[in-house]
Amino acid sequence: MTDKAIRLKLTSHAADRVLLALFAEAPWHAKASVQDEIDHLSPLGITVSLKRNRPKRTDAQNAFYWLCIGILAKSVGMTPNEAHEAVLCEYHGSTEVKIGSRVHHVPNGRSRDLPIDAMGELIETMYRVGAFCGVTLPSPEMVE
User: Is the dihedral of CA 108, 110, 116, 119 positive or negative?
Assistant: First the structure.
């Protein structure tokens, strides 16, 4: 396997600074300086966004979560979606929204893009909600 160099010809001095900041041997905590360089591109009509690529939750985590949500929901007389919303409110916090004379709690976040570790925390939150309601949920080992 041979090494191949890629040569880029950039016309913008700001673009040069962005590339230097991105490819420098700086740790990721230097992201603020990278953002400063990216901000210099804004007057040129160029938008760049950076985010760390984090692995999403696994299918096994998702299946286990929804299995347990179904058990929790049935035990407390809710639909699975209602139980899911309650767990999300506990995990992310919630905002009160008044609709007519009723007050609803809306979660401050969703679960669809949670990475593996955060999904584990959501599952732990589900266990706490279940325990508070007097519902014993299965462990992952019991389901396997």
Answer: positive
Give percent of the chain with pLDDT exceeding 70.
67
Helix (H) / strand (E) element for 70: namely helix 59-76
| pTM assigned to the model | 0.62
For residues 87 and 124, what is the distance between their CA atoms, to the nearest angstrom?
Answer: 10
Q: Which residues pair with 102 in a beta bridge?
A: 99
Q: Which domain holds residue 3?
A: 1-52
Please indicate, yes or no, whether residues 14 and 45 belong to a single structural domain of this protein. Answer: yes
b or e along 86-122 (b: 16 or more beta carbons within 10 Å of the residue's beta carbon)? bbbbbbbebeeeeeeeeeeeebeeebeebeeebbeeb
